[in-house]
Design brief:
Elements (H helix, E strand, L loop, with lengths): L1 H18 L2 H14 L2 H4 L12 H9 L5 H24 L9 H10 L10 H18 L6 H16 L10 H11 L4 H25 L2 H13 L10 H23 L6 H22 L5 H4 L4 H14 L3 H25 L3
Length: about 350
């Protein structure tokens, strides 16, 4: 009933959004608040995983995952990440200036699990991955390249201290050098490795001083050498979102291929980099199968980039309308499903 009502009122809503741009942001915040209502009504305290990563383990000792305080901070962090990612896509001309659909899509993907409606490790790590991605896109013109590469490597390393699986995002830095510079400079590669290693040297120096360095090295070795061979069962809503993500990949990639002659060189390189980003995120999912409800959030950033690319390239207004209705329907289904159906 609600979906039908929104569909009938869609022309009026679009006119209001076009006239009062701030209403889009308000609507996005309301949508996110609906999806994150569960931890404030019926919290699943202590339900978030990812205790292997040291910074998230320390954070969990301060704020018990699932409690309202952690949920409130997670909600604020999610909104900041969604608007920041949307801003990045606007700045690199992937989406129109007025569009907030990618931000809404990112919020939906990061809110798909009740266990993840808190300061979960993926959400915390993404707060460092997004500025790293921003620096990668800024480095395409070659200005401040050394500083940007070093800073990006540090950000990827910090992200992995919240969620181990973000380690597999680090090769994206080398891919970006090959894509934008058509080569892999030895000097820049050494700068990237130095920035990445510096964070872990400080981490293990800390453990050496306080004790426990052998234990921490064992944790990292185990995660690299022995990925989980089993996976968690998913909820119905998550299977629906997986299907929708696959559909977005298909539509976006096929649209990019169909319009490849119309794309400038930078956009083509950005799309190739996004495909590499997606593949790396899927590799990271394989190392988090034992916490699959959180692992499915790892491809959220590249999925959002593909969503933006499709929005920018498609000229089919009916398909855009269908996409908007699918997004709204998925949010409403997930809202009711998480609030009343799923148990902790």
């Amino acid at each position: 009933m609600i979906v039908v009502l929104v569909f009938l009122l869609r022309p009026i809503i679009i006119k209001l959004f076009d006239r009062y741009g701030y209403l889009r942001s308000i609507a996005l915040v309301i949508l996110a608040a609906m999806l994150w209502l569960r931890p404030f009504v019926s919290p699943c305290v202590g339900s978030s995983g990812g205790a292997d990563a040291p910074l998230h383990r320390w954070l969990s000792q301060l704020l018990l995952p699932g409690e309202p305080t952690a949920a409130a901070l997670g909600f604020i962090l999610l909104l900041a990440e969604a608007f920041y990612l949307n801003f990045i896509l606007i700045r690199i001309n992937v989406i129109p200036k007025k569009s907030l659909l990618p931000a809404a899509f990112y919020i939906l993907l990061m809110s798909q699990s009740v266990q993840g409606l808190t300061l979960n490790p993926v959400l915390c790590g993404a707060a460092f991955v997004l500025p790293a991605l921003d620096l990668i896109f800024r480095s395409r013109d070659g200005r401040n390249l050394t500083v940007n590469i070093f800073s990006t490597a540090i950000l990827f390393a910090l992200a992995s201290l919240f969620c181990f699986e973000f380690l597999f995002f680090f090769p994206l830095l080398f891919v970006s050098l090959i894509v934008y510079k058509n080569t892999l400079p030895l000097r820049m590669s050494m700068v990237a490795i130095a920035g990445f290693a510096a964070v872990f040297l400080l981490l293990f120096l800390f453990y050496f001083l306080v004790g426990g360095v052998a234990e921490q090295m064992g944790v990292y070795a185990k995660r690299v050498l022995y990925p989980p061979l089993f996976w968690q069962e998913l909820e119905m809503a998550q299977y629906i979102l997986i299907g929708w993500q696959v559909s977005i990949y298909y539509m976006a990639i096929s649209t990019v291929i169909a319009n490849r002659d119309k794309l400038n060189d930078y956009t083509r390189k950005t799309m190739f980099l996004s495909i590499s980003f997606l593949l790396l995120s899927l590799v990271s999912v394989l190392y988090m199968l034992d916490k699959l409800e959180l692992a499915l959030m790892l491809p959220a950033i590249p999925s959002t980039i593909f969503m933006g690319a499709y929005i920018s390239l498609t000229t089919n207004k009916k398909m855009m309308g269908f996409l908007e209705m699918m997004l709204l329907t998925s949010c409403l289904v997930l809202f009711f499903y998480n609030l009343w159906w799923v148990e902790c």
